[in-house]
């Protein structure tokens, strides 16, 4: 991944987020490395976005996904994070995707001490701070709520549910996919301080 010790790595699942996932490339620094994983030609990226990439101080790498198997890009991204973390465990590893399949592996990475996370776009520092606040709040409040073997994965899925929700009802629906209905009532009540700015009841 190059000789430079980058502080942040962005792994962009282009088949999932497309060009919208690249929002924010103009804010990146020389400490950032962006890896774009694609299987189809990147013809839908407008010239304005190409110019932002060219002018960006970050390092960009384009990775063609050759394998014609399901979730090939996902597997390559996870493999590359493992490889990069062996050389630089102090960096942040940010997957740009909306794919929930990443939530379990991210939880495992974090248990290993790897600062891995998932975001829908190449984020600004404000987005990072919001994500860290949400993760810290949920982790702290889930100490007594979730004592299952899947606690780490459940926390990550809950973090993503709050991060990506546009309404309170979306959070509730996402929680119902993770927990039983009785637990959802308790958990949703704990999450209310994080949901106060979302529309709905």
Task: Write a brief caption for the model.
By secondary structure, this protein is an alpha/beta fold. The chain has helices at residues 14-17, 47-55, 72-87, 103-111, 125-141, 151-164, 168-176, 181-195; strands spanning 8-13, 32-38, 59-64, 92-96, 115-119. The protein is built from 8 helices and 5 strands, in the order βαβαβαβαβαααα.
Total number of β-strand segments?
5
End-to-end gap? 47 Å
Low-confidence sequence ranges: none
Based on CA inertia axes, which overall geometry fits? Answer: globular
Q: Largest sheet, if any?
A: 5 strands, parallel
List SSEs in N-to-C order: EHEHEHEHEHHHH
Q: Class by helix and strand content?
A: alpha/beta
Number of helices: 8
Can you describe what's shown?
The protein is α/β, with parallel strands linked by helices. It contains eight helices and five strands; from the N terminus they run βαβαβαβαβαααα. It has helices at 14-17, 47-55, 72-87, 103-111, 125-141, 151-164, 168-176, 181-195; strands at residues 8-13, 32-38, 59-64, 92-96, 115-119. Strands 3-2-1-4-5 form a five-stranded parallel sheet.
Features:
alpha/beta; 201 residues; globular
Which helices and strands occur, and which strands form pairs?
Elements: E1 8-13, H1 14-17, E2 32-38, H2 47-55, E3 59-64, H3 72-87, E4 92-96, H4 103-111, E5 115-119, H5 125-141, H6 151-164, H7 168-176, H8 181-195
Parallel strand pairs: 1-2, 1-4, 2-3, 4-5
């Amino acid at each position: 991944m190059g000789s430079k010790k980058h502080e942040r790595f962005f792994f962009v699942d282009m088949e999932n987020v497309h060009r919208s996932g690249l929002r924010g490339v103009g804010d990146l620094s020389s400490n950032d490395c962006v890896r774009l994983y694609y299987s189809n030609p990147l013809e839908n990226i407008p010239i304005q976005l190409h110019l932002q990439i060219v002018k960006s101080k970050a390092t960009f790498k384009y990775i063609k996904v050759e394998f014609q198997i399901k979730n090939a890009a996902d597997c390559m991204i996870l493999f590359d994070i493992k490889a990069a973390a062996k050389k630089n465990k102090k960096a942040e590893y940010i997957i740009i995707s909306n794919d929930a399949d990443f939530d379990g592996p991210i939880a495992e990475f974090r248990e290993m001490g790897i600062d891995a996370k998932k975001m829908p776009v190449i984020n600004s520092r404000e987005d990072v701070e919001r994500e860290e606040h949400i993760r810290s709040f949920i982790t702290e409040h889930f100490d007594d709520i979730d004592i299952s073997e899947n606690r780490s994965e459940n926390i990550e899925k809950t973090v993503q549910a709050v991060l990506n929700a546009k309404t309170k009802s979306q959070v509730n629906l996402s929680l119902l996919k993770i927990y039983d209905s009785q637990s959802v009532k308790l958990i949703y009540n704990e999450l209310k301080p994080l949901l106060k700015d979302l529309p709905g009841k």
